[in-house]
Amino acid sequence: MYYTRLLQINLPKKQSAFLWGARKTGKSTLLKHLFPKAPYYDLLKSDLYLTLLKEPHIFREEVLALEPKNQLIIVDEIQKVPALLDEVHWLIENTDFQFILCGSSARKLKRMEVNMLGGRAWKYALFPLTYPEMPTYPLLEIFHTGTLPSHFNNPHYRKALKSYLEDYITLEIQAEGLVRNLPAFARFVDCLRFSHGEMISYSNMAREAGIDQKTIKEYFQILEDTLIGYFVYPYRKRISREIISDTPKFYLFDVGLANAIKKVDIPDLKGSDAGKSLEHLILLELTAYRGLYENDFTINYWRTKTGLEVDFILGDGDIAIEVKLQSNVQTADIRGLRAFMDEHKPKRSYVVSLVPRARKMVLDEGEIDILPVELFLKRLWNQEII
């Protein structure tokens, strides 16, 4: 099934671009849909990969033979043959051809200090399916399947997720040589089940996985660089309360993948696992919205040393968002949000929950909009939240 995606790539003449995104987010499908007539170099094809790996100049020679001389050319999995970037650079400088260079990670390219085209290519990112891209938004189903296009609405999602995890470790990590000790990395991934969406304890993870803390931090960085996960750092602006100031949380890029790693079963919209999944899902929507609209607001969390917490703080404390898996939110349920409002005076405060209809609380600390999940997401993607 093809899903209509929000991302549009509109390039003026002589402008090229990178398109980054984790595996199976639909990059290739999108590019073939947007540019059906473009010459397409797929470096996952072993014969093409080996040819260009040994003789990258062949790419330049083939492009120069194309007619017309100003068409768009797509290169998929560009990170597999870094030397092609020199050829692309020369073609950009000396011809009217345009290029879209697609890949799942720039880590290998940056680590090798290869030619990243020096600002000559715009950067785009593709995410898993978002709220406006889905025909329906069944929360409980999404918690299980996740939102990768090939997994969403897939009756065999368990096998698909298991295969994705195994393929990621073998293809993305081992084949591209991002780690030397694959068993250690596999133990690290297994330990994510206990730390996902929580404040990271590097020492605990190191002890559980039998790896030193420096390596644990490096593995987290690999996941972020390969677009498989995101750090969320604490909001640092202090006023009066003692806050957690330096411990990040880490979230995988897909809620279904996270629950597969955690090996949790969520039979209904109740309990802590479902609540954490809803919090995770809202973060992913915020992250995709920020990326697709090229908005540069930060996403942080706020937590005091006494345990008061707000799930997400956007921008410079402008927006505060608390996520609750409840159908009847009371003031006692949002003590952290009220404390943040009292100290930081955000412009808007929201509770995203399972309430059947929108409500507005007017408190001494200010107004709080309590919104059903889909109404919040509709307003977010209509650019009414931030």
Tell me what you see in this structure:
The protein is α/β, with parallel strands linked by helices and 386 residues long. The chain folds into 2 domains: 16-125, Rossmann fold (3-Layer(aba) Sandwich), CATH 3.40.50.300; 131-381, no CATH class. It is built from 14 helices and 13 strands. The chain has helices spanning 27-34, 46-54, 57-64, 84-94, 107-111, 139-145, 157-174, 182-195, 202-209, 213-225, 255-262, 271-292, 335-344, 373-381, and strands spanning 16-20, 40-42, 72-76, 98-103, 121-125, 229-234, 249-252, 299-303, 309-314, 319-323, 348-353, 359-363, 366-372. The strands form 2 sheets. An 8-stranded mixed β-sheet has the order 7-6-8-9-10-11-13-12, with helices on both faces. Strand 10 (319-323), helix 13 (335-344) and strand 11 form a beta-alpha-beta unit. The longest helix is centred in the C-terminal third of the chain and has 22 residues, at 271-292. The chain is globular. The model has no long low-confidence stretch (mean pLDDT 92).
Strand content: 15-25%
Instruction: Categorize the overall geometry.
Output: globular
Q: Fraction of residues in helices?
A: 25-40%
**What are the secondary-structure elements, in order, as H or E?**
EHEHHEHEHEHHHHHEEHHEEEHEEEH
User: What profile does the largest beta sheet have?
Assistant: 8 strands, mixed
Q: Number of folding domains?
A: 2
Distance between the termini: 31 Å
Number of separate helices: 14
Average residue-wise pLDDT:
92
Strand order of the largest sheet: 7-6-8-9-10-11-13-12
Unreliable sequence segments: none
Structural class: alpha/beta
Number of strands: 13
- The Cα radius of gyration reads 22 Å
Query: Oligomerization state of this entry?
Result: single chain
